[in-house]
Every structure is written in C-alpha cells, then in structure tokens.
Amino acid sequence: MPDLNELAPDFTLPDADGTPITLSALRGGPVVLYFYPKDNTPGCTKQAIGFTDSADAFEAAGAKVLGVSKDSVKKHDNFRAKYDLGVTLLSDAENDVCETYGVWQEKKMYGKTFFGIVRTTILIDAEGKIVKIWPKVKVDGHIEDVLAAVKAL
User: Fold this and answer.
1) C-beta separation of 39 from 73 below 8 A
2) Known catalytic membership, residue 44
C-alpha cells in the first residue's frame, strides 16, 4: 500500500459507461478513492448508496468520489442503474490497481481462506498526495468520517 504523503499511484480505468478515467487528470481537487469487494452485496451497496446520498456535500467540498472493484463495466452499469447510484464506479477487471494500492489481500470467511479486495478508502489531496487511509473499513459512519476529512483539507 502506498504511504501517506506519497503521490497516489496513477492509473486509468473505465467507468460504468466504459469511459476511461485517469486519476492524475483529477488533480486540482481532492479525490476519495474507495475500494470495495463486489457490486450488489449488502455492505458494498450500503456504501455506494451512502456516498451517493452525500454526493452534494462532497461536490460542495470540491471532491470527486471514485469506487473501485474488479467487477466489469457492465456489472457496474447494472449496479448503478439498480440503485440509482451517483458515484463513479471504476472497473479494475485486471486487478492491477487493487494490487498497486495493496487492497488485494488474503481474507477469511466461514473458515475459508481466499484473496479479495479489503474495503479501503484513500483520501488524495488536490496535489495528488495521499493524506489519509482508512484500512478495513466498516461501512456504518464511514461516509461521515471521510466527508469530515475532506472538509478539513
């Protein structure tokens, strides 16, 4: 995982419409980069709806919110339509960005060990530096914490 005060590793990934989004092109304002395991699962849905419900507040603070998972562009499009999501969802189908950011990790559930995305949020400042990392995020109260950190920049 990149360190605090480092430049966030740059990437270009397709959004739910297939449009390429490049992280470095978003400099000039803060970016909330959140990694989540899978579309249409309870925690991920709650998180995406939470960011969508707070979209105006993030926008007022000048921040862009980007959600990243390994789901395909089509799955992201369906997920966005099903819940009327206003957050930008990026497809890391090749897992390159998840690996670069260190969120692809060994997990355990129901006695089984497997690799997957560990829910993580990274706040990047207007210059492209990582200023805060929330590892192993619990969804309840998280959006409020992130918004407070954005406003404090």
Assistant:
1) no
2) yes
